[in-house]
Amino acid sequence: MSVSIIIPAYNEEKNLNSAVKGALWAVKDTVSDYELIIVDDGSVDRTHWVANKFARKNRKIKVIHHIKNIGFGSTFKDGIRNACKDYLVGFPGDYDTSEKSLRDLIKKASSADLIMTYNPDMSTRTWARRLFSKSFIMMMNQLFGLRLKYYNGSFICKTKLLKNLKLVSGGFAIYAEAKVRLLHNGLSYEEIPFKYLGRKFGKSKAVSINSVLQTLETMFILINDIKLKKDK
């Protein structure tokens, strides 16, 4: 099997080196072919320099540079458009996730149409992020009749499935949107635990007023596209 790994990065010069090395370790002796797609989302630090350094040494590493910051969701969608391997998975450029967990996820790819991850230990998250995450999971499960343990964790599925989706989120709700739309299409799924390390440098951009508003917007769009149309 072959896999495309999308690594979104925004001002991650201190974390990206470890993230890329971790992703490379995860695919070693695990897949027949791979590509790493680093998407620099308009960083103003040396993220672009770190990304280009890896690309110069390894032809399987692609780098996409955004002139300005356009958001995690838009970055992930850009990665999907440029992916060309059989399977696709995202890996954070802030390196807050274990490469061993990424390898385990890749190995499970063929077990179901969609393999999703959940965080069994939320102690590495701030209280605000834990509260937001728990509330979000409860609302999403209630709205769409699902019983998922986590919506914003990494997942792996066939690349063509994601290329066929019409994803609209430009923010951090992109993973949740993709999962809801894929499951609405009747895909089989499995959830596995994922080890989150917590970022070593910098501050998480996942919880902010803007990200909350973007998430609510995505939820309303999903309600309209899936729930309301289904009820008509």
TrEMBL record:
CDD domains: DPM_DPG-synthase_like. The keyword Glycosyltransferase applies. Its cofactor is Mg(2+). Residues 4-158 form the Glycosyltransferase 2-like domain. Belongs to the glycosyltransferase 2 family. SUPFAM superfamilies: Nucleotide-diphospho-sugar transferases (SSF53448). Keywords: Glycosyltransferase, Magnesium, Transferase. It comes from the Bacteria. One of its GO terms (molecular function) is glycosyltransferase activity. Pfam families: Glycos_transf_2 (PF00535). It comes from Candidatus Gottesmanbacteria bacterium GW2011_GWA2_43_14. This is Glycosyltransferase 2-like domain-containing protein. The keyword S-adenosyl-L-methionine does not apply.
